[in-house]
Batch of 2 targets.
Target 1
Amino acid sequence: MKIQVLFVSFQMISPRGIAAFTTHHSPIQPTFGLSSQIHHQHRQHLFHSDIHSEQDLTFSLSLSTPLARSSYTLTTLKSRKDGIDSTNYDDECDVLILGSGQAARAVGALLSSDENLDVVVADSNYDKEWVPNYGLWKHEYEAIKEMFASPPFQRELKDDCIDRTWENTDCYFGGSFDIPVESRYRLNTAYCRIDKNGLKRNLSPEGSDSSESWYRVIKANHISSATSINLYSPANSLVHDEHGSTIQLIKNPNSDDSTTLTVRAKIIVDCTGHESELVLKDSNIKSIPPGYQIAYGALVSIDESDLSDKTHVGPYDKEAMTLFDYRTDHFDDDPDALAKATSAPTFMYAMPLKDNLIFFEETSLVARPAMSFQECKDRYLKRMKHLGIKPIELLEEEFCYIPMGGPLPAKDQRIIGYGGAAAMSHPSTGYTMARTMMGAGPVAKAIMDGLNKPNVNLDKVAADAYNAIWAPDNIRQRDFAVFGGEFLMKQNVEGLRGFFDGFFRIPLELWAGFLAGWPGLPYNENHETWFGRLSFGLRFVINLKLPIAVDMATSIATYTIFETLALAQSVTPFLGKPDSYEYVDLPKEQGDVAAKKEAMNMIENSELNKSAVETPTQTSTIDIENNDEIVNNVEA
Ligand SMILES: Cc1cc2nc3c(=O)[nH]c(=O)nc-3n(C[C@H](O)[C@H](O)[C@H](O)COP(=O)(O)OP(=O)(O)OC[C@H]3O[C@@H](n4cnc5c(N)ncnc54)[C@H](O)[C@@H]3O)c2cc1C
């Protein structure tokens, strides 16, 4: 028996994790109108201003830095600029990717297709097996495969990335709205289970035929934690400057003989997962707190010795995957358990693999606070017993924990967050994998383009990468799904059965577009405009059973009045777009240039100046460009 535990996701249990979460989540200002303009004006790029003097540098750093750290940083920056320290690095690269999960390797695989770029992936867990058993729609996987294979990347995802494909996907919504308990709703839409080891191989140099042009690997972790935008603790563990970033990595972080490495990179991409210590969340924009998907998964072999029909596992057809079984008839003999399962619903997700092997996952779609894992496991066991399914061997256990929604990354960060670190999970479904695989293309392209330019501006490269992830239109689409997550969270099991029964009865291109929720994935084009989302919403609501449609209409009104205007901004043209991550160039001219010019003219034409030609006593000049007044006293 193999028990797989999720290591990264539980960081939030540590005091440091909780502190980081609560600090970065503090509310906040209204999202729209004046406040967003104010927000723009306060955006700072600490390192890409033309630093002319030590005085300029001290000023810019002192904006948000405690004195002790700023003076230390100043020394470091100065020496980097002068090129004094370059021999002290243990490694240098163009792009350093932190983490080696699916987001990290997707970006690494694509970026390293550019032969001009030296890409390094750093993670002490690099060799560990991946935990999640990813599932996604076949049409999404095919689109991702095509993007990977197309120029400029030309990375092949081979057939061993997929473990199994089912041509049909089944749902069970019986028990409410006169839907019989045994009734099965079949979607003629194919679903895939990723072979996690196969995908990992395909996204790694060791899995490719030629490893020469791939990324390099350092088996070490970063140790830094962001304290404010572009500043980190412990001091000097991560420092940015105009030419790059210097970061300390630790080999064997959990042992006594840990070794520290100093790595220099032009740009760093943080793919360390949902609870990143480096990517700060945006506290300038009001956001709804995240919800959590919790699931207990078990890969088991089933006792089929007394079964004559081996085409099914209990009610589940082995030729289809079961996306949702929301029935609760296994609690009919236990009113307390039934009440609990009604008010805090879970569903069964079942993937028949081969022969008598099947992967079951009892899942709480989204809840705040999160559902207990033990509750999911108990419900799984009870359901198995009720369905007459007899597991004989437990081969793997999976504890699925996915934060959904919540704030997006803060603007103006030099570290590029990606994957879980950039809050990329679908806010109403938890799907992440297809989004991070597809999104890796535009992000890699933005980084490639930026770094290949002469006189590269690294703040702009980071901003362009963020804009490739969260362009205003994509944020607007996400806001629609955030409302979806909030609505689903407050439904009891009847509400969820009715919701999904209506959802899957609208045309494929509409429901699949909502589930994709990411540019480049098939059918997403139907959700990319406010009009598309509005049309989807109206089409969906008229398909809903009356009580759910009424609840939906009431929820839209209360959400918009009491929570945020983000949904209204998402489905109408009237409220503009969310703030962009685009690079905002700092103004070259400071102060009132006209007034300063006038003063200069007056000084030039001053009577004092004229008399000074005969008997020079004092000259005054204003250096407009540097905004410095220089007064020279000249001895007569
Ligand atoms: C059990 C489970 C099942 C799931 N199933 C699905 C699914 O079926 N479909 C779907 O779309 N999504 C699914 N998800 C969601 C999805 O897997 C995650 O959201 C996704 O893995 C996030 O990818 P990531 O690469 O950003 O982060 P992660 O996969 O969490 O990877 C983070 C990496 O960062 C490394 N790391 C952490 N700290 C450091 C450090 N200090 N320095 C260096 N490296 C560090 C870790 O070792 C790890 O390798 C599932 C999630 C879980 C947990």
Target 2
Amino acid sequence: MRLLNCPGSHAAEAATPREPETPDAVRDGGTLIHAAICGDERALAQLTPDQIETKEKCERLEFEAASKYIDIEDGSHSLTREERLWLHNDELEKIFSGQPDVIRISHERHVAVITDFKSGWAGAEPAEQNAQIMALAVLVANAFDVAMIYGIIVQPNAMQGPKVSVVEYGPGEIVTAERMLRAAIAKANQPDAPRASGEWCKFCRAKLNCMEFQSRALAVELYGQTSELSHEKLLTMFDHWTVVKGMGAQLESVLKRIIKENPEAFAGKLRITEGRNMPTVDPMKAWGALSEMMAPDEFIGCCKVSLTGLRETYHKNTGGTLKEAKEKLGRILGDAVTYKKSEGSLERI
Ligand code: SF4
């Protein structure tokens, strides 16, 4: 959680206007999956087969993990999804909020299980080290009469870290966590709250005006100018880079907005180029027009077939679960599908 790591980010964000969000396939896909898990039919209808698979995995893993701490089958527990919870100060003013993806509570046993879904490829910190789960546990402890809280992170697509991790908060741990959270909130509300940059900067909209963040960018630049790059320096440079690389999209979005509002703002220095017209070829019409000029296998050689599209259509036509459709299609296609391994990406260990 950013507030614990960078108390100054609260004021920094408050002073930074929101920019219209640019489309982001991973973020937007995650929002759709979360909405579909919450029962939003319109979101469910928009999911691709891969997203449906992620949704189903999230639900299954959550069910399996939560079943270890609550008797789900007997139906005696309560279940809420995406309910916003608040923490109050002594004057009963709202000072902090959070929204667990799932809360299951056994009111008889005073046990709560909270789950946070991560649908992307980037693995989150395991639940035991995850400040967001800690804050959610404090919120749940304040909102319900519970003595034990289990915090679960479910991330079925994570390339690193466990798919499911759990942390246990007993009465003592809850008191300590609440003390930490309240101290962090108090610190964040100080006029001179310190800032500290790190991977939590990724979702902070104050990036472009933040010296602490920009010093990371400068560090990358300075290291880049050094003639001798030791392994140690390269590794430090990589750490800085993983934090600052998200700035590019935000910078581009701010600049585009300024130019759209005032085309003369950067006259002679910067402009938005013409968008490219991306061609889409209707294969049926193209074959109708070209069938006398090329052999069928030559034409097919120019066509790309989308495996996701095939899965989607096969699933729609044959019914059953997505998993069954995927497996059957895989058997039908056999060696018609070949795989080429891409080069792996860098991962800090
Ligand atoms: S960009 Fe990073 S360092 Fe700057 S305020 Fe936001 S979280 Fe803190």
